[in-house]
Amino acid sequence: MLGLPVLASDLPVFHEIASDIPDYLDPLDGPGWLTRIRSYARADSIERASQIARIERFHAPTWAEHFERIDGFLESLR
Fold it and tell me: Which partner for 8 in 19, 22, 33, 57 could form a disulfide, CB atoms 3.0-4.6 Å apart?
């Protein structure tokens, strides 16, 4: 993981992949994207600092943890 902040389209797939780490925007909101990109480009950006703090708290699962979750999900389907 590179630890870089991300602005993402507010689509279910990205929420599933990245949870609450990125800041999400309406994919059709051009002015909103421009505002957020400009904000993130500032050294004193509170939004960017907040996301970096979320990134630092993130713990990527090990392969064992990942497959334990999958096994649990598959068991729930029985």
Answer: 22
Name the pLDDT band for 1 (thresholds 50, 70, 90).
low
Rounded CA separation 6/48 (Å): 9
Cβ proximity of 5 and 48 under 8 Å: yes
52-71 pLDDT, tens digit per residue, is 999 999 888 899 999 999 99
Question: What burial letters (b/e) apply to 6-43, b meaning 16+ CB within 10 Å?
Answer: ebbeeeeebeeeeeebbbbbeeeeeeeeeebeeebeee
Amino acid letter for position 9:
S
- In the chain, the amino acid numbered 38 is R
For residue 35, report the phi and psi dihedrals to the nearest 5 degrees.
-60, -45
- SS3 state of residue 7: strand
